[in-house]
Amino acid sequence: MSGLKLFHTTNSGVTVVTPRLAAVEADVQDLVEAHMEAMLGVTFLASEYVIDCVDGGRIDSLGLDENGAPVIVEYKRGTDAGVINQGLFYMAWLMSHKDAFRSLVRDRLGGTAASQILWSAPRLICVAGDFTRYDVHAVGEHRRSIDLVRYRYFGSDHFGLETVASVTGHSAEAKRVRRRASGLPVRQQGGAMGELAAAVDEVLVGLGDGVTRVQRKQYRAYQRLRNFACLIPPQQTKVLVYLRADPTAVDLVPGFTRDVTGLGHHGTGDLEVQLRTERDLERAQDLFRLSYAAA
Predict the structure, then answer these.
(1) Is residue 292 within a helix (H) or strand (E), and if so which, with residue range?
(2) DSSP 8-state symbol, 232
(3) Which DSSP helix (H) or strand (E) runs through 130?
(4) Cβ neighbours of residue 97 closer than 8 Å, sequence gap 6 or more
(5) What is the pTM of this model?
(6) DSSP reduced 3-state for 64
(7) Which segment of the chain is annotated as a signal peptide (predicted)?
(8) If we measure between CA atoms, which residue out of 225, 253, 258 comes closest to residue 240?
(9) What span, in angstroms and rounded, lies between the C-alpha atoms of 42 and 161?
(10) Distance between CA atoms of 258 and 243, rounded to whole angstroms?
(11) How far apart are CA 67 and CA 206, in angstroms?
(12) Burial class (CB within 10 angstroms; exposed 0-12, middle 13-18, buried 19+) of 77
């Protein structure tokens, strides 16, 4: 159970806003599906998707995340020890029926999105009233990317999501993709800028628990539930990082930060940070933390 408390403040004092569970599981599912991109960073594709297999079943929600990875979302009103295994069963079906998912993406989002699905990083997101310590331990024993997310209603018009555990998958396919991604920042590549990119990677991963990396050819994404930073392979004279932080809330500095809202670029985020030296990295750390908090 989360220790977070929410207070309503007035001139006369404060009162505790008592958290509560949904009346029925469908209430949580309907709310998240209606706002899936804002809440989870996932584009909604389908609800109650019927799978074609001997045992049958319905996937609560299907989506595609910011990096093009397939996402299964399963919901439980309270605590249910079977939600992870249920989700993994659906994940196995999905990875064995890629054509069905590809067709769904093509129908909803078009051929370009369908051709760029990141099959190396499928995700399972479990949204439930709570999880046991055994659930938290279990996700670390699987080779898939799994997020355990606790929900709560507060009063009549507030809804909260809290990441309890987040684990990056270690499938053989994902490992092959990492080995092929020679353009990604590592210390042995790119000279001084490669060294700087590696230092950026270390800082971003160290911002807090539950940070996961997702690698694409054009960038490396850093996630909580959603991307909060995207690191571009180092250029000859600089390293570019795109952040989720709101550019209008930042004092922009020419040659260091730039508002790229509406401008095309690899990765996600509207605030571009240009790094050329270790000093630039030190200056950027407050922006990294701001973006991490926003994800």
Answers:
(1) helix 278-294
(2) P
(3) none
(4) 51, 52
(5) 0.84
(6) strand
(7) none
(8) 258
(9) 14
(10) 11
(11) 21
(12) middle
Question: What's the token pair of residue 127?
Answer: 């949204």
CB 289 within 8 A of CB 207: yes
- Comparing CA positions, the residue from 97, 43, 109 lying closest to residue 73 is 43
Give the separation between CA 247 and CA 255, rounded to whole angstroms: 15
Distance CA 210, CA 225 (A): 9
* Residue found under tokens 């180092």: 234
Q: Report how far apart, in Å, the C-alpha atoms of 168 and of each of 32, 69, 108, 175, 177 are.
A: 22, 12, 27, 11, 14
pLDDT at 186: 44
- How far apart (Å, rounded) are the C-alpha atoms in residues 269 and 204? 15
CA distance 42 to 64: 5
Amino acid type, 279: R
pLDDT in tens, 189-234: 558 999 999 999 999 999 988 888 999 999 999 998 899 999 999 9
280 contact partners, CB below 8 Å, separation of at least 6:
256, 274
CB atoms within 10 A of CB 289: 15
